[in-house]
Write a structure and sequence with these properties.
globular
Length: 463
């Protein structure tokens, strides 16, 4: 196995035992970047020389028995909303063409202190305001969308041009591209990972989280990212913890909620079949399946838009008025629409979210996790704007992709997307596990138990 193909856990073990040098690993990933970037366009900026210098320093530290932890010498990509001192943060927008970060974001500083090596800044749908990341191509089929808005991060991990990456998630922007590119994506509990130094889309819905090749890798990154930072007003004061799921795969006694409504409505037949097979596998591992009723489903879309649209417009108020022509048309229209939204709609959305959180908390008293599709369809061809469902319903692609992921943002609960197979076109299918606030450990335990039952992962090769 070539170094770029290693999972984070495998690479960390190889570095720890001296079987692999950080220089070998970073060089392998950078060679992969050079070969695939012309086809994939996952990166807005590649920091190759910086990465090589950091790899040499990491190798020297490893040789002197000064390993900083499991991320020491591991190549990573950071979504181009996340500040790194001295590196551009463009948000994949002409609005930020000349911007350079003056200081590290909290997450970049924590990853740097852990010894992780920055390969570059990954593309996002402009200012994270979209679900396709049109400039980046799917790692499994370059004629299809990457998903968004963290499309660059997901593609980099899937294609081996980063061992792990960070994304942001406001309505599904980590989990959607994770599902469409066959990698693992985690939206943590709201406030668990600080957002200081990360460009905002909607402050009350924004999350930062990892994209990795395995569930086990997620635990290693989350342990570094999680923790209080007073510079983020929403940051939670939680003690450090070890999120590693352990070797046991027995799920006896665990209650898995299977939605009887919403999550399996208007879902591609192959996606539904793959997710239901995965749920059956959880049952075979000892879990007890419990039917659940998802509350307040008729209000999900209106609440999501009622919160996100005015908050995004408020963030962009000055530049939207000073230089509207610098925004892409799809994003500019959404930002301008926010100026027309009455304050009462935003207030009603806040009230709806409060009620929704209360009802979800009640539902999660009866189950430990909920299992559902991450997205209702696999990656559509680039340029396709709508999906027509068997009942004749026509749905915009972005609305379809956000539909199943938005509830976790509205309620703040953690949600993990992991691969559970492929459709007949060979495109990845993702299952979503949702849990109680601060229940990441349970999600990772369940996801890891399922993952251990599957054959070895197949790396995407930028078809």
């Amino acid at each position: 196995m070539r170094p770029y193909e290693l999972s984070l856990t495998e690479a960390a073990d190889a570095i720890r035992t001296g079987r692999l040098s950080p220089v070998e690993l970073v060089d392998s990933v950078l060679d992969r970047v050079e070969r695939l970037e012309p086809r994939l366009n996952a990166y807005a900026t590649v920091t190759a020389e910086r990465a090589r210098r950091a790899a040499r320093a990491a190798a020297d530290d490893a040789a002197a028995d000064r390993l900083r932890g499991p991320l020491h010498g591991i190549p990573m990509g950071l979504k181009d909303l996340i500040d790194v001192a001295g590196v551009a943060t463009t948000a994949s927008s002409r609005v930020r063409a000349d911007h350079r970060a003056q200081a590290d974001s909290t997450v970049a500083a924590r990853l740097g202190a852990s010894g992780a090596v920055l390969v570059g800044k990954t593309h996002t749908h402009e200012f994270a305001y979209g679900l396709t990341t049109p400039q980046t191509r799917n790692a499994w089929d370059t004629g299809r969308v990457a998903g968004g808005s963290s499309g660059g991060s997901a593609v980099a991990v899937a294609a081996g041009t980063a061992t792990f990456a960070l994304g942001t998630d406001t309505g599904g922007s980590i989990r959607v591209p994770a599902a469409l590119n066959g990698v693992v994506g985690l939206k943590p509990t709201y406030g668990l990972v600080p957002r200081h130094g990360v460009t905002s889309l909607s402050w009350s819905l924004d999350h930062v989280g990892p994209l990795t090749r395995t569930v086990e890798d997620q635990a290693l990154v989350l342990a570094v990212l999680a923790g209080h930072d007073p510079r983020d007003p929403a940051s939670l004061a939680v003690p450090p913890r070890d999120y590693r799921p352990g070797p046991a795969g027995d799920l006896t006694g665990l209650r898995v909620g299977v939605p009887r409504n919403y999550y399996f409505e208007r879902v591609d037949a192959e996606v539904e079949a793959a997710v239901r097979r995965a749920v059956d596998r959880l049952e075979a591992l000892g879990a007890r399946l419990v039917e659940v009723e998802i509350p307040m489903t008729r209000y999900i879309q209106a609440t999501q838009w009622g919160l996100m649209v005015p908050e995004a417009t408020a963030y962009h108020e000055r530049t939207l008025r000073a230089a509207p022509e610098l925004y892409q048309a799809d994003v500019r229209i959404l930002l301008e629409a926010g100026e027309l939204m009455p304050a009462g709609d935003h207030l009603r959305a806040q009230r709806s979210r409060t009620l929704m959180r209360r009802e979800w908390a009640r539902m999660l008293e009866d189950v430990d996790v909920i299992a559902a599709p991450a997205v209702p369809a696999t990656a559509v061809p680039s340029g396709q704007e709508t999906i027509t469902w068997p009942d004749g319903t026509v749905e915009a692609v972005s609305d379809a992709y956000v539909r199943l992921s938005a509830p976790a943002n509205l309620t703040g609960v953690p949600s993990l997307s992991l691969p559970v197979g492929h459709d007949t076109a060979g495109l990845p299918i993702g299952m979503q596990l949702l849990g109680r606030p601060l229940g990441e450990g349970v999600l990772l335990r369940v996801g890891h138990a399922y993952e251990r039952t599957r054959p070895a992962r197949e790396p995407a090769d930028a078809a």
